[in-house]
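Appendix B.2, paired examples.
Example (i):
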Amino acid sequence: MSRFVFISLALVAALLAVDYYVYRHWRRYVRLRSQHHSGIRSLRWTLPLYQVLMPLMAVSMPVYFAFSNWWEVEPKLARALFMGIWVTYYLPKALLALALPVKDGIRFVIWLFGWFQERLLAPAEVPASAPAEGPAEVPAPAPTPTAEARLDLSDMKRMRRREFVQRLGWSAATVPFVVVGYGVFKSLYDFQVFRVDVPIRDLPRALDGLTVAQLSDLHAGSFFSERPMHEAVSIVESLRPDLIAITGDFVNHDADELPLILPALNRLRAPLGVYGCPGNHDHYARIEDVVRGVRSTPVDLLVNQHRTLRVDGARLHVIGTDNTGFRQRYADLPGALDGLQADPHGEEVRLLLAHDPTFWDAHVRPGFPEIDLMLCGHTHGGQIGFEVGPLRWGLARVAYERWAGLYAEARATGAGRQFLYVNRGAGTVGPPLRLGIRPEITLLTLRRA
């Protein structure tokens, strides 16, 4: 709880700092421009009005929805409008807060060079010569050089560059409308296939090369039609995996969202089967209805249960737990393993499906070193971030150490390593937006190490 409060307070402080920083620059910008254009002075109060009216609109919307019953009639549209207002409110300021420091940096460099020139590069005094006959001429006092004059940066068109950066910063305020539109209508359902090799020590040769396709965090309520889920299933079918795993969060808030994904789930087939586990959002809905709906498809939803599959003499144990994470404690891993028959020759692999990545460090690693690989989701990769070669960062990194991709740690006992894979999810929570973190379909291949 203390971690949640700390993150919330830090986020509020950061947003207030952005508000203050942008407002100060806006006032200065209007003041300077109003010296040449008197009509601009009236714009001074447009940003404060914007800062007051937009949050007021966002706060008043739930009240309107409550009295109009719109939240129940059109819940997806209501949530999209509510989150869209906040995204539109802060995203322009965030871009300005990134652009304006460039201008401030240029101003600081100009001041710093001027300071050094004035104190360290001042011309040396010339010794006085013998006085000449006649009246002495009194030299006119030299004008005090300004920072701009001292630097003599006219050839660099200093002022034009500063004005360009400043105008570029304010022009960037229009970019979010284009960026958000791209995030909603293009990258939101632009599924990316991640191909990952998992090197397991002493993997049975019969399982070497076995493939698992993973989906996670479908969040049916985030889809506006059945089409995105059908596209995801078509991609999975093209991969031809040996086994399919879905690691929780089939819905956002209500089991009534399931019809958006059930037709696509009914298409899923794999030689070794299709398996799943519940997520935290499935408990926000009526969990019994979610379980019943998912199990009406080929998906074998494992709720603290396991299945043992035989592959050419080797055993593949697929284990699924209910969710354990923030404010939820439904997982029973010992119960899920109850009755599991280990292979007497060690020709086996144990694959765990559990929704929340924190379950791996809190329970699996310290108490269950026999688990070879855990598949999870939950973080969505933060939905906003960047992944460029080895460089990657998502908003989920603020709250989760293991937020996306493959992780490995030495087993608490025994040789070899345990592996965790965190899927970036297929759907969304909060704003229907993905920027830099595309929805994911994973194809994991088990390799003998």
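Example (ii):
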Amino acid sequence: MRLIALALASAAATTGLITASIANAYPNCAAARAAGAAPLYAGQPGYSRKLDRDGDGVACETGGGSVSSGGGLPLYGGAPVATGPATGGGGYTTVVNWTGANCIDITAPSGPAGTLQTGTHCGGQATLFSSGVGDQMVGADPIIGDAGSLACEILSGRLMDSGTAGDGHDVNCLTRASALP
């Protein structure tokens, strides 16, 4: 009897810890997008593992994210801006290559503020430009989806990553500008 009471007390104590961490999470990705908070990174207010479909620590990086996400809102923002290099030599060019699928989603900084947006890119290659400084994000985080292989590089050789479907690796070339050589 003491063992059962101890088990129930332990369960009650840990339930508060578990629900506290998701209590402030968005109920679905549509709500996170409506609040302008998507994508959500692990540790960021509003993040929940239930919204992180591929378990890479980034929730709501594409449409859906949970079965309850419901429609009505666009699945993702516009494609990340691919503009020419900024004047004065500042800026980063990121190339993403993939095989086995016509289109993939890529999360990358967009616009002068460097807001992260996810867009669909087709054709096996995408070239993106970002002009971040200091703690601003640069590069790209491609999502393998149905592709067989995926590679990204912040030119020239500043950051490279690659992987294949099913290898368990999250290919990611998204980083802070200050972290690059």
